Amino acid sequence: MDISVVIPVYNAAALIEECIQSMLGQDFQGRFEVIAVDDCSTDESPRILTHLADAAGGRLRIFKTPVNGGYPAAMNLGIQAAHGKYIARQDSDDRSHPSRLSLQFEMHEAHPEVAFVSCMRYWLTVHGKPFHAPLRPDSAYLLETWQDLVGNWRTFTDPACMFLRERSLRVGGYNTYLRTGMDVDHWLRLMELTAAPCLNINKPLYGRRLIPNSLIYQPRTTYSNAIPRAFAQYRVENKLPLDAEPTQVWMEAVRQQVPATAGEFKRVRLVMDTALVNLQMGDLRGFVDFFQVALSRNPLSALRFLAGNLLRGRLSDRLPGIPDVQMTPLA
User: Fold this and answer.
1) I need a labelling partner for 92 at 20 to 30 A (CA). Which of 23, 68, 180, 288 fits?
2) 3-class secondary structure, 222
3) Residue ranges in 82-181 assigned as alpha helix (H)
4) Residue 305 lies inside a defined structural domain of this protein
5) Residue 59 domain-assigned?
6) How many domains does the structure of the chain reveal?
7) With 60 as the cut, is the pLDDT of residue 319 above it?
8) Do 148 and 103 share a structural domain?
9) Do 242 and 273 fall within a single domain?
């Protein structure tokens, strides 16, 4: 088996079928499987997954975590169950371009020295309008280092990564000391194991969906994102093993270094940025959904941000769209 696609699933009934169809419809000519790990969903996700598996002819395998442990625990279960040489990560509310697996596999096989392979993302507004940021025209791929990731200067997307299963097992798989931020922790340890960078394909092959209530927009995400980066520096400086985990006391000390208002301010600004992107792409309902979230958290900041961007004429600058990816329906 060449590739195992691992998809952690929790209460994703509205989008999981589109997600899985985007993987089953890949143009990859080698052997691959899709593994969906249900993390104790309470919605219709388990029923939908069973239906999809019945229709997929053995290409989709379903597993369930014993307790709800977050996506790191679900990823570990999927990696353990996988038959593939490579693991391709995928979130349950996103979708992939049909050529994602073939291009990532080809690039990883051609460059076995890199820590892992990722790709540029395209975004999907709340109601499915795709777009991407401008790409660098001078390169087929970018090499991004451990230092880039620690400093949060990177362009690759976490759930768009493909990595060798054997390497992941060597570093202990995903750490589970937090329920979020553990992709970054995993990538940093793979980079330390290989002393190599990430190779990021300079094509938008991964569709990241903008959802107002997702974790990326929560204030606590600022803290959880800081911890794996800080611990990576601590681990390297103190020569700790790659599967080491920080203590609760250590993590609390890191949290204390982040100003109390930083998480709220950064996330409100991110919510408003996303609201304006939805508006730029003509998704008015998406703009309203995100703007309401920003207003509920900090009305004054949200209104100031909107007024400032209107005065600067930002809304006249449209982002480049990309052709929509047609999902292949299951038989």
Assistant:
1) 288
2) helix
3) 100-110, 146-150, 165-170
4) yes
5) yes
6) 2
7) no
8) yes
9) yes
How much of the chain, in percent, has pLDDT values that exceed 70? Answer: 90
Q: Which domain holds residue 182?
A: 3-211
State the pLDDT at residue 316. 47
pLDDT at 90: 97
The 8-class DSSP code of residue 103 comes to H
Give the alpha-carbon dihedral of 128, 208, 4, 99, to 10 degrees: 70
pLDDT at 327: 31
Look at residue 111 and give its three-state secondary structure.
coil
Tokens 């499987």 -> residue? 33
Residues 137 and 257 in one domain: no
**What b-and-e string marks burial along 135-164, b requiring 16 or more CB atoms within 10 Å of the CB?**
eeeeeebbebebebbbeeebbbbbbbbbbb
Q: Please, which pLDDT band fits residue 128 given cuts at 50, 70 and 90?
A: confident
Which residues, 6+ apart, have CB-to-CB distance to 97 below 8 Å? 22, 122, 203, 204, 205, 206, 207, 325
Q: Are 293 and 274 in contact (CB under 8 A)?
A: no
The dihedral sign for the CA sequence 260, 72, 103, 216: negative
The pLDDT, as a whole number, for residue 262 is 53
Token readout for 205 is 């092959």
pLDDT per residue as tens digits for the range 255-282: 777 654 455 666 788 888 888 888 888 8
Q: Which residue has the higher pLDDT, 295 or 327?
A: 295
pTM score, whole prediction: 0.89
- Same domain as 290, residue 158: no
Residues 13 and 155 both lie in one domain: yes
- List CB contacts of 146: < 8 A, sequence separation 6 or more: 188, 191, 192, 197, 232
Q: Alpha-carbon distance 145 to 152, whole Å?
A: 10
Among 195, 150, 147, 148, residue whose Cα is nearest residue 171:
195
pLDDT(99) > 50: yes
Environment class of residue 303 by beta-carbon count within 10 Å: exposed (0-12), middle (13-18) or buried (19+)? middle
61 and 138 in a single domain? The answer is: yes
CA dihedral 267, 270, 272, 277 (to 10 degrees): -160
d(CA 244, CA 242): 6
**What φ, ψ does residue 263 adopt, rounded to 5°?**
-60, -45
